[in-house]
């Protein structure tokens, strides 16, 4: 019987889980954060709105991804 082409290693952090949870939590947390912060900012054009959302979303994504990874790493051991 030939070896399967794809194999996984159960040791270590499950990066697939980290990416999926990061994606979902970033949307759930990021959308309200962007909406609340946009209330106090002058966003006159669609370009300004998109740039604002990307900048705030990037910060939210970074914080969420580091938090989820730290949680997975702590939970692993």
Describe this structure in words.
- The chain is mainly α and 77 residues long.
- 71% of the residues lie in helices and 0% in strands.
- The chain has helices spanning 15-38, 46-76.
- The longest helix has 31 residues, at 46-76.
- It is elongated.
Largest sheet: none
Low-confidence stretches: none
Q: How much helix, percentage-wise, in residues?
A: over 70%
The first-to-last residue Cα distance is 35 Å
Provide the structure class: mainly alpha
Gyration radius (Cα, Å) is 18 Å
List the helices and strands in order: HH
Count of DSSP strands: 0
Strand content: under 5%
Principal-axes shape call: elongated
Q: What's the tally of helices?
A: 2
Residue-averaged pLDDT: 90
Key traits:
single chain, 77 residues, mainly alpha, elongated
Condensed summary:
By secondary structure, the chain is mostly helical.
Helix-strand blueprint:
Blueprint: H1 15-38, H2 46-76
